[in-house]
Amino acid sequence: MFIVLMGPPGCGKGTQSAKLIELLGVAHLSTGDILRQMAQVDTPLGRRVAECLDQGTLVSDELIVDLVAERIKQPDCRPGCLLDGVPRNVPQAQSLDELLATSKTAVDAVVEMQVDEEELFSRLMRRAETEGRSDDNSETVRHRMAVYRRETAPILDHYRQQQKLRSIDASGTPEEVFERIEAVLVGLN
Ligand code: ADP
User: Fold this and answer.
1) Residue from 127, 142, 164, 166 carrying the catalytic annotation
2) Which pLDDT band holds residue 117 (cuts at 50, 70, 90)?
3) Bond from prior residue into 91 cis (ω within 30 degrees of 0)
C-alpha cells in the first residue's frame, strides 16, 4: 500500500506520519529526513543538498527519484510506504507513478492536510524556537510556503483526476487531525 501525505510546511505531516505508519503497518519514506542526513556529510553532494535545505528550494527531481527508487526496494517497504515530502511537483508525481507501475503497484490514496497559512507560519516560528531546524526561519518559511503553492499544490489536480485525493482539515490537536485522517482512509487496509 502506498499512501502520500501532503500539506504545506508546518501542517504537521511529521507528527501524523509517525502515527500513520503504526496504523497502516507500512514504512516511512520521508525525503526531508533523508536529505537532512545527506546534508550532514561533507561531500560536494552533501553540500549541495545542505544549500537547498537552508534556502528552502527543492533539490533536483533526478536526485529525489533516485532516492525514492532506492528506498522502496528496501525490505521494510514490502508492505508499502507512507510517502512524506514526495512528490513535491508534477514531474515527481509522474515519475512516482511510473516507478510504482514497474513493480505493478500504484499510489492508493493521497491525503491533503489543509491549514490556513498564517496559522502555519506561527506554528513554524514556534517550532524554530523549540527544535532549531535550520530552515525554520521566517524568510525560508515564507519561501517554502511559496514553493508549496507554486510547485506542490498543482499535484492535487493530478491525484484528483485519478480520484485518489482525500483532503482533511488539519487544524486542531494532533489527535483530532489523526481521527480525520483515519476516517478518510477507512477501507484501505
Ligand atoms: P517541510 O514540508 O516542513 O518544508 P520537509 O522535511 O518535507 O519539510 O522538507 C525540507 C526541505 O527538503 C525542503 O524545503 C526541500 O529543500 C527539500 N525536499 C524535501 N523533499 C523534497 C522533494 N521531494 N523534492 C525536492 N526537494 C525536497
Assistant:
1) 127
2) confident
3) no
Identify the sign of the CA torsion 153, 2, 61, 101. negative
Structural domain that includes position 47: 2-185
Count how many domains the chain has: 1
pTM of the model: 0.93
Q: How many Cβ atoms from other residues are within 10 Å of residue 54's Cβ? A: 13
How many A from CA of 19 to the centre of ligand 1? 20
Which atom from ligand 1 is nearest to the alpha carbon of 60? 25
Residues 66-101: tens digit of each pLDDT: 999 999 999 999 999 999 999 999 999 999 999 999
What string of DSSP letters covers 115-127? --HHHHHHHHHHH
CATH number (domain holding residue 128): 3.40.50.300
